[in-house]
Write a structure and sequence with these properties.
The chain is of the alpha/beta class. It has 11 helices and 10 strands. Strand 4, helix 4 and strand 5 form a beta-alpha-beta unit. The structure holds iron/sulfur cluster. Iron/sulfur cluster binds next to helix 2 and helix 3.
Length: 317
């Protein structure tokens, strides 16, 4: 478990959570097993990330899959700086007042993508509610920079909701990523406690809007489970996402980053994830990834190939 204090700066990493009561931490079950980050591939990925002065959600969110992903040089870049303007109860990314945007960041992401030799890259970001366009133009610039340097690499963006700023989604779609992902994160009844700065229907509408602008663009969304949601609520989220035309659903176990974060209410066993996957596929998603360690960007390259194949198979049938 990570701590609330950022040791390097000596400042609270989550100032808004510093005075919250600490919650008890449930012991992780046996099925939450992760690979230690010790391989040569991990070290090489780490070096490339640092050389290019980039941030990754793999490190900032304390992702449990980092040992496995970085061994294969699969890193997910986090753009728009390392400081988030929101204060979601589940998230370990540093919060506070962000600095100025780095205009070189798009080029550095493209250079790192080339050095890592990525066939598929996932780019995500912090929330930047302080920017006039929520950071949409920076996303578009990053997509274009990667296309220019690595034309064979497919690009997946995992965006914030841009605080519903006009024209933001349109700007990102116009840069033509291959996959547009925006996570709902949880069920609507938990938004006020888990994702207080966001609105459930605004996030759904964002995903629907992507399909309205470009029906051929793959859309993807994800939820965490174990935050206290009811099963029926998850099934309702699936229906809502299908109504918005979303192609790919990811479902993973929520893990509590620190005692100040939202507690894990329950660890779902692997067979419950399998059952959710069966229901979701029956509801019409082209692809579903559902397991305790599923994360939006986990195996994203292999999953993108499967997503394309699933669309082709649907067309042929
Ligand atoms: S699952 Fe995604 S965020 Fe986690 S280590 Fe892998 S690429 Fe990074």
């Amino acid at each position: 478990m990570t701590v609330v204090l950022d040791h390097t700066a000596g400042k609270p990493r989550h100032p808004e959570k510093a005075h919250r009561p600490e919650s008890a931490v449930l012991r992780k079950p046996d099925w939450i097993r992760v690979k230690a980050p010790v391989s040569k591939g991990y070290a090489a990925t780490h070096a490339i990330v640092r050389e290019n002065g980039l941030h990754t959600v793999c490190e900032e969110a304390g992702c449990p899959n980092i040992g496995e992903c970085w061994e294969k040089k699969h890193a997910t870049f986090m753009i728009l700086g390392d400081t988030c303007t929101r204060a979601c109860a589940f998230c370990n990314v540093k919060t506070g007042l962000p600095g100025a945007l780095d205009p070189q960041e798009p080029v550095h992401v493209a250079e790192a993508t080339q050095k890592l030799g990525l066939a598929h890259i996932v780019v995500t970001s912090v929330d930047r509610d302080d920017l006039a366009d929520g950071g949409a133009d920076h996303f578009a610039q990053t997509i274009r920079a990667i296309r220019a340097r690595c034309p064979a690499t497919t690009i997946e963006v995992l965006t914030p909701d841009f605080l519903r700023k006009e024209g933001a989604v349109e700007r990102v779609v116009a840069a033509r990523p291959d996959v547009f992902n925006h996570n709902l994160e949880t069920v609507p009844s938990l938004y006020l406690t888990v994702r207080p700065g966001a609105r459930y229907f605004a996030s759904l509408r964002l995903l629907q809007r992507v399909k309205e602008i470009d029906a051929t663009m793959f859309t993807k969304s994800g939820v965490m489970v174990g935050l206290g949601e009811e099963r029926n609520e998850i099934l309702q989220v699936m229906d809502d996402l299908r109504s918005a035309g979303v192609d790919f659903l990811t479902i993973g176990q929520y893990l509590q980053p620190t005692r100040k974060h939202h507690p894990v209410m329950r660890f779902l066993p692997p067979d419950e994830f399998e059952a959710l996957k069966t229901v979701a596929l029956a509801k019409g998603f082209l692809m579903v990834s559902s397991s305790p360690l599923t994360r939006s960007s986990h195996h994203a390259g292999e999953d993108f190939a499967r997503l394309k194949a699933a669309r082709e198979a649907n067309r042929a049938s």
